[in-house]
Structures are given as structure tokens and as C-alpha cells.
Amino acid sequence: MYNFIVTLDENDIETKLTERFARHARDFDDLQNEMAGRDVGRISRFLGADAKEAKGYEKREARKDAALSALQAMMLENPAYAALFEETQTALSDAQTRLDALLEKVQAQIEQTRNSIDDNLDRAASLPDGTKVFKDVKGDVRTQDGAVVAAELAATIIWYGDEPSYEGFQADNERLERLNAIESDIRSGQAEIGDMQAAMEDESHAETSDELEGFKERMDEIEESVNSNFDDILASAPTPSVASSGSVLSSSSPEIPKF
Question: What's the pTM?
């Protein structure tokens, strides 16, 4: 085995020490810069994951602030746009308030209609097996789903004269279906308007004047549609709930004595 002895002259030693001290100085500077949040273009080496994430968050917030400042600058430079922006924000907010009020009215009608349906079922005649039945304007006896009851089975029913008609029962069910559809449309409309509001609050993007006008037009369409449908329901005349032939007793019904 051979032993080699490498000798370094004083110049080599001085060069290596200089490089080491320079590296240590650079590391120290990098640490100070990272702790202060300054980006000097070199990869972060000393801060932990939490600190790096916090630093990234600060950068994202700085970008958001810059976008907001750009929007503010645009509004300051264009008073007409600023006025339209504020007008649209207010219009969307007011529309949400009106839709909330309409939703409460619709829900009140839904509850009222459900109560009417329950009352009709309580007062409806019944077959021997408990199936609820109604008499229509023609005198036919029908179940809830509209099926006609056979004559021999219908003859077993005792009528008292205050039973709800089949048409009245169906009208309530159709009314409930329409009200539920309006409730769904209101909630969908509110969600759509909410998306418009969120878009306007997005600091990274400024809506154009045409887009803002489009928001208002679509808002008007949503309100006009649900209000019109609700007005139609309120204007519709209720169907009589008592069958016109309900006072006619079946052949097997006991005769009610007259005094």
C-alpha cells in the first residue's frame, strides 16, 4: 500500500478559507433574508415548511391586493364604470332581499296547501280496506291517483255529503306541485345571482360594463319569471272542495231520518 502526502502551499490554504468564509457569509445573508421575507432569487433553505407556507400566503395576499388596487384604479379613472358597478351591486343585493320575501310567501302557501290536502284526506270517504276515495263531477268514484272504483265496490260507500270532490283534491295537488316548482326556481335564481355577486367580489378580475349590464338583465328575468308564476297561482280560482253530488247516498246507505 502506498501513502501519498498531499501538501498544500499557503496560497491553496488561503483560497479554501476564503471560499469557506464567503459561503458562510452567503448562508447567513440568505437566512436573514428568508426570516425577513425578502426574496433574493435563491431557493429557500433554512425556514421550515410552516414558515414557507406562510411566506407563500403573504405573496398570494400581495397579488390579491395588487388586483384590488387595479380595480380601484379603474373605478377612479372611469366614473361611469364606477357608478355602474355600484348600481349593479345594489341591484343584485336588493333582488336577493326581494326573493327572500317572495320565498317566505311561497312557503306559506305551500304549508297552507299541504294542510288543505291533509284535511281533504281526513274528510274523504273510504273503501272497506281504508283506501280514500273521491266523487268527481260526473258521479264517478275515484281513488287518489284517479283510478275509477268499480260500481259494486262504490256501492258499499256511505256518503255524508261533506266529502271533498275529486276535482278539489286534484286542484290542491296540482297547486302544491306548482308551488314547489316556484320554490325551486327561487332558490336556483338566488344561487345564480349569488354567483354574479361572487364574480363582482373576485379581486383578480374586473367585470366589463357589458357583463354588469348582463347581470342586471338576467336578474330582472329571474324575478319576472318567479313573480309571474306566483301571481298566476294566486289569481287562479279555487275548485269547490265538496262534490256536487256528494249528498247523494249510495243504495246501501242507511236513510238519515228527517225531523
Answer: 0.65
